[in-house]
Amino acid sequence: IDRDDGISLNTEFGLMSAFEVNVVGNSVDLVMHIRPNIPWHKGEGIFTTEDFKFSYGQMIREGGLFANVGNMQRFVNNDIENMEVVDETTVILHSTKEWGIADMERTIMSQGILPQAYFERVGGEDEFKLSPIGTGPWQFLEHRPGQSYKVEAVRDHWLKEAEFDTLTVVKVPESATQIAQLLAGQVDIVSMTPRQIQEVQGRSNIALIRSPDAIETYIVYGGMVLESKEGYDPTLPWTQEHLMDESPTLVRRAMSISIDREAIVERLLFGEGRVAAMPYFFDNSEAPWYSSRWTVRPYDPEGAKQAMIDAGFEDGFTIKSFVFAMTEGGNLNGDIQEAIAGFWEDNLGVKVERVVTEYRPTVRTRLFDRTTAGFTWTFTQGTNTDVYNYFSGSCCFNSASALGHWEIPETDAFIFAAEKEFGDAAFRYNQMKQVGDLIYDKYLGFGVARSNVIFAVRDDKISGWDFAPLTGRQLDFNYVIKAN
Questions:
Q1: Shortest CA distance to 479 belongs to which of 149, 209, 226?
Q2: Fewer C-beta within 10 Å: the chain N or C terminus?
Q3: 3-state SS string for 405-432
């Protein structure tokens, strides 16, 4: 991902140094050139296209559960022999308009790689996990399951050499313990929620580092799947017989405008964010898919009550709501869902049964199985993703997705048309604007807030962190700046 805008593809920052998409008739060939002479860690040779093909084959194997496995399989028609190794630095993925989708290079470039010879020599996946190697700026030293892992910097790394010699990531579940260890100098970096800032602000040797607008939180309505599927429930207030009809749209409108987003930003995010007009990465005014007509819905409890009356639900209804923490945003995801449930109860007379759970594996499994009818949930994630890639992928918003938050024929039409325009990015983004218009006008989920990623650091050790825009990933430790 480009470190100037946080969204675009830029081969300067990846192992793929260049690519071309050749379309002739029904054939689609993705020619990929990998960066030459990139060493595997610990003297295990050079990364080649044979490793690339092997890694791809591992990803599409039967039983793969990562979100994009469906598309990865589809690109090669589930046959790894449709990937041709030309030489050590050139490989061609032979696809077709039927199998492939436009911008499939982004999906492929975002996947991990494995060293074939080393992987096979140590005995396979389980053994590889005990002592992994890669090509990144850090190489593995040790792992204490459930406690910590330690890596060391790769000197003279081709991308960005880390300024520190070693990095130890420690799992400390209790936030109070994390902060105590930071104040005592036992750790140098702690991920913070906005609520925790007051506990460290103004403390000697502690500084706060922010990556602005790097997290989004939105609401998803469960059970919004194809009406032909078993998971579709026509008795749900927000789906009914046809979810795009007036009554379910009014229900979704009521549930959106009954939320005081400003209060959530002020009281839960402590001002470390802003209200969001749109969910699902659409709320980015600098992006090519953005539309200025997507303005923030004002808090309107009276209008929400009227919408419920017009929809035929004057007395409210009963629903369930998943409440769970997430890697990005931590407990804030659950806190925001709790706040939203409270607004629904107070303003709409909706009874909300909270189901406290975890995203992995419980909720995620339901998204694969399409068994989310009757539930709503908040979802918190990083914001540096292209909406077309997100909506056209195996995750998460079309009827061909392996993992699906929702699937709707009207949005499918725009997405599937965009997928076949291999050489026209402007067309794809125009299609996504129309998807955005449907989301906005039909209230197909709604944005709540965009917030900052925040870290508290020991300023005697760390003077900054060179984040790419819209990112705050803890994987980018090689961009941490050492204090003088």
A1: 209
A2: C
A3: CCCCHHHHHHHHHHHCCCCCHHHHHHHH
Rounded to an integer, what distance in angstroms lies between the CA atom of residue 48 and that of residue 34? 8
Angle between helices 409-419 and 425-442 (to 10 degrees): 170
The SS3 of residue 216 is strand
| Positive or negative torsion for Cα 39, 44, 46, 47 | negative
H helical segments located in 110-150: 116-122, 125-130
Tell me the pLDDT tens digit for each residue of 195-204: 899 899 889 9
Distance CA 182, CA 177 (A): 9
Mean pLDDT along residues 464-475: 80
Inter-residue contact 4 to 286 (CB < 8 Å): no
Which runs of E-coded beta strand occur in 26-96?
27-34, 83-87, 90-96
Alpha helix positions (H), 151-238: 175-183, 197-200
In a 13 Å sphere around the CA of 138, the CA atoms on its Cβ side amount to 22
> Which stretches within 82-232 are classed as H helix?
104-109, 116-122, 125-130, 175-183, 197-200
- Taking the whole predicted model, whether its pTM rises above 0.85 is answered as yes
